[in-house]
Amino acid sequence: MENRPATIWTPLVYSLLLAVGLVVGYVLNSDAPLISLGGNPSGQPGNGNGRVEQLLSYIEARYVDEPDAEKLYRAAIDAVLGNLDPHSSYIAADELQALNDNMEGNFKGIGIEYLVIDDTITVVSALPGGPSETAGVRSGDQIIYVDDSLVTNVTEKQLDPASLMQGPEGSEVRIRLRRDSEDGLISLNVSRASIPLTSVDAAYTIDPDIAFVRINRFSKTTYTEFMDALEEHLEQAQAKHLIIDLRGNPGGYLQEATKVLSELFVERGVLLVYTQGRSSSRQSYKSSGRARYNIQNVAILVDGGSASASEIVAGAVQDHDRGIVVGRRTFGKGLVQEQYPLSDGGALRLTVARYYTPSDRSIQRDYHGGGGEDYRSDLNRRYESGELTGRTAVAVDSSQIFYTDSGHPVFGGGGITPDHYVPLDSSLNQENFLQLRQQVPTYVFRYLRHHPEVKQLTELEAFRRSFRPDMQEVVAGLTTLARKEYGNVETVLSPALQRELALFFRARMARQLFGAAAYFRVYNQEDETVQQALRLLRNADPLAAARGASNNL
Fold it and tell me: Which of 24, 31, 243, 307 is least enclosed, having the fewest CB within 10 Å?
């Protein structure tokens, strides 16, 4: 971007400061309505009913330079919401549809997962049953043309691959592909369709009597997907115990979380969570008493990325001593948002209540009236303090002590502290290792081109038993890619980091060959949190084993 003299930006900066300053001043010093819904039909400044509306109308009509009205409105909105909590937010119209599609569990497109490799859209997989798979798109295909538009040099042209593929359901797009086994381009017509976004990443029988289910978020389809997983592995495979992996799960729909929870309690009327706010009366969510399966021992896996609905699940299981919570302290989001449509096509997501676990604890972290850098950097602070790595104990607020059904102490005010703590291996944060690891998804394609024999392993179990790549070759290939991006990258890794890199590479290769769930079936073989959960579930009394251990609590 070309550098302009600072004086060109000065009027806009002053106008933004004026807008924000007056907004905050009026908020603090007046009882009049803050914002008036609807437009200003006269087009004259000062005729709107809301103070912000009047303010911005004067600026638009009289300011010495032409202001950017949209930036002024966003500055005003951000100033107001910045004085609330970290999770109340404005969602612009162009962002709202994508957000709603994500939570509804579908979007309109051609049904591929892709990476940008060598600045070209490369198909990781065509989603099973989707329009691209039906049309003949294969893993590894490179998309060269979309309709008549050349779509190589993605970064240089600032292309958004997702927007190129999306469109109205039933509309057709012509794509031309480059495939290694073919000389020319392959032309395919693909009809766009509603593509389901699954929230259950993996479900399989990890041990003869233990099922594993990983949930990445709580969307509108989560409960249905969860029940399908239980039918396959608790009914057909006859597992008795259950691991639910909620690591990195940011939450979602409260109702989906409580429906999943209800399947863990055979009794009717067990309190799962309740919400309450200044203008919202208490609303309790209880078990239905219609659990389809008699699940015995339960383990919930969590970490610092587990938030909101994930914490509801972990909190209810812990408070009722229903199972064990394994991993690291959760994010600490105990606020409930409702979404309200706005006249500009966007929406206001406003915090209206807090949720409380069955023991009456709120697990919302302190946010000091806003969501600034101090709030957002909490995980970094946990790492630096030694909490994540197990060097120091988990920080708890002793003034917020509560008790589970059996009298075990638990704490509010900062996420769910697990029953069994699994520290983070600090060596995995080594910069050189991370730079190499980042190249693995791209390198998988290059490796397969040079080792086509790997594709002869057509069964996942055979792959798990026999695929052991030459890591010197792999590290050398990853280093070549990393040096293009970062410059000086070393090839020397400690034995522990080389083992971790080999595990990740094998898991990504399994994903490429056998689908997304295969990644977890390979990686979980050596994942420390999963292995600790398995060890505890095999104990005669998993809860006593988890809470009785000296594990940083």
Answer: 31
